[in-house]
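Sequence in, structure out.
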Amino acid sequence: MADSAAPSPPPGPGDAAEGVAERLRHLLGPATVVRDTALTGGLHNSARLLELDDGRRLVLKTAPPANAPALTHEQGLLGTEALFHRLAAGTGARVPAVLHHEPAGPGAPSEWLLLTYLDGTTWDAARDRLAPADHAALRRRLGASLARIATVTGAAYGYPQAAAGLSAPDWPAAFTAMLRAVLADASRFDVALPAPPGFLAELPVRFGHRLAEVRRPALVHFDAWQGNVVVARTGDGPWRLSGLIDGERAFFGDPLAELVGLDPLGAAEDDADLLAGYRSVAPTLTLDTGAHVRLALYRVYLALVMRVESVPRAYGGDFATWLDTWSADRVGEQLAVLDTLEP
């Protein structure tokens, strides 16, 4: 996170963050903010690095206004992030500590979250400075950390925020609701889909027997790509995993879905180092036909989410063009995988 910081003025009177200034003063006690820096890289919530006169560094995250355009599952995301970090911390995983969370409501037009800051830089930003051996070691550590996080069991499957209405007592029902919600979002935002919506909506029914192989609602970050992994080193020493950030996309479901979120463009199940780290904690991880079917389903889902969110987030330029092409190709590719695995 440190390398993505760009100095900017404190929030002005029209900024939603201004509404939390008084509450921040109450939470910080005698400490005062001596530097306020915008953190770039987020595509939904805004984040600011607050440096205090007592030496502490905190992150203030603020959601868009509650009435801003968003996908169905994007409700109470900072509440989900707070929940994820608290649960993950209980497994020994390195994550920011949650200092305060406040949902939107009277006097708070936007949901906000106050966290401790993880020292270091994102893996994505440090990539060119890492030797192959560094990458391999970090992948093993990341795999082990995600396996520990997956030991957390939720009360139900799906997204944890009740307002989204996307949870169920079993994984087939929850995943069906999740997939059909993004298809409904596509219709709402007039997003063309790379396959007929009715065909896509029936995928969880067609492969319901494979989804039913998931018997425990495990905690899944679902966005643990290198931009959300913080790494650090002391001097010329080895790189270490400082922690995992941005747990706002978390849900309870199939732990295999983590492989899709941490490598959205590739196939993390082919990464021997990652799997070795994961199996050092969860040796029973298997990649049989059922697992590959479910991975393909989750890749279809993530590609659709990324495609549809481009409209409410007003993506433009080359990125929007690339995303449109990539998501269509990805969905087509994974539908072909499903036909090959189970014609």
